[in-house]
Amino acid sequence: MGATTAQILAEKEVGHNIVLIDVKKGLAEGKALDIWQSAPIGLYDTRVKGITENLHETENSDVIVITSGLPRKPGMSREDLISNNALIVKHVTENMVKYSPNAIIIVVSNPLDIMAYTSYITSGFESQRVIGMAGILDTARYRSFIADELDCSPKDIQAVILGGHGDTMVPLPRYTSVAGVPVTQLIKKDRLDTIIQRTIKGGGELVKLMGTSAWTAPGYATARMVEAVVYNQKRYFPISSYLTGQYGINGIFFGVPAKLGKNGIEEILEIELDEEEQKLLRRSEKTVHENTETLKRILEEI
C-alpha cells in the first residue's frame, strides 16, 4: 500500500523526494530502489529512498502518510485490532513529528477513523492537519460499480459517501450523478441498493478474492490527497475529518466532504440530509463513537 502510493506519486512527479520507511530491514530500501530504477523507463525525476532507521532523512517533510498496521486475523476482536494498531500508529506518529513538526498527516491504517484519532492525539497537531483516507476509496468503488451497471465511463460519475469507514458507511444516491443526471433516474432502486451493499462490503470482497487487502485503489486515493496538499489544489474530497459540531457530531474522526489544500482541511462541507439519511448517519456515528471510546481506554493504559 505504501509502496504503491509512492510509485504513483513518483510517476506523477508530486514532490522532489519520497522516503519509504519500514521496520523490516531491507524492505523499504528494496521497494524504493525498484521504484527509482523504474524512473528512466517511466520518465520521472522524483527521488525515492528507503530507510529502516535514520529518520532524519524525513526531516521537514510536507506530508506524512501512515499506512502501518496489522490486518485483522481470525479470532481477533475489534478491541484487539484497535489495541495493536494504536500502538503502532502512536509510535510512528511520535517518531515522524519530531522531524517534521509542520507536516500534514494522512492516515490510512485501519480501523481508519480510530487510527486517525490516534495520530491526532499523539501528534498534538491542529485537527485540520490530520486526515484519514477512506471516502475517496469508498466512492471510487461505488462509482466503478455504477459504471459497470450503466456501461459508461467512471469519469462522468460523481458521488458522496458519509460516515465511518466500514460496514456503517453511508452512500448517498441523492447526491450521486452521471454527467449531472441523478443516478436514481438511471438505475432502478433494487439494483442501486445492490450496488450500495457491494460498496459497503467492497474491502471484504477483495480480501476473499486475493487473501489480502487491496493496495492499488487505496494507493491512488492516497496519492490524490497528497497531490491536493502539495499543489494546494483546494479539492473537495470525502475524507475522515475531526468534527467539532458539523452534522451535529463532536469529538470523532468521521467521513465528510471537505476542501483539501496546503494547510490540510480548509473547510468541511455540510449537506442537507433527509430523515432516512440522518438515521443511517447516526448509526454510523454511534459505531465510531464506541470505537473511539475503546481507543481512549487503551491509550490511557499505554
What features would you describe in this structure?
- By secondary structure, the protein is α/β, with parallel strands linked by helices.
- It has two domains: 2-72 and 95-132, 3-Layer(aba) Sandwich (Rossmann fold), CATH 3.40.50; 135-301, Lactate dehydrogenase/glycoside hydrolase, family 4, C-terminal (L-2-Hydroxyisocaproate Dehydrogenase, Chain A, domain 2).
- Helices cover 46% and strands 19% of the residues.
- It is built from ten helices and 13 strands.
- Helix 1 crosses helix 9.
- It starts with a helix and ends with a helix.
- The relative contact order is 0.14.
What's the CATH H-level superfamily name of the largest domain?
Answer: Lactate dehydrogenase/glycoside hydrolase, family 4, C-terminal
The dominant shape is: globular
Quickly count the domains: 2
Helix and strand composition category: alpha/beta
Q: Strands of the largest sheet, in order across it?
A: 3-4-5
**Oligomeric grouping of the chains:** single chain
Overall pLDDT score? 95
Unreliable sequence segments: none
The ordered string of helix (H) and strand (E) elements is: HEHHEEHEHEHEEEEEHHHEEEH
Q: What would a concise description of this structure say?
A:
With 302 residues, this protein is α/β, with parallel strands linked by helices. Helices cover 46% and strands 19% of the residues.
Topology, please?
Elements: H1 2-11, E1 17-21, H2 27-37, H3 39-42, E2 47-51, E3 63-66, H4 78-99, E4 104-107, H5 112-123, E5 130-132, H6 135-150, E6 157-158, E7 161-162, E8 170-171, E9 177-178, E10 181-182, H7 189-200, H8 202-210, H9 216-230, E11 235-244, E12 250-261, E13 264-268, H10 275-301
Parallel strand pairs: 1-2, 3-4, 4-5
Antiparallel strand pairs: 6-9, 7-8, 9-10, 11-12, 12-13
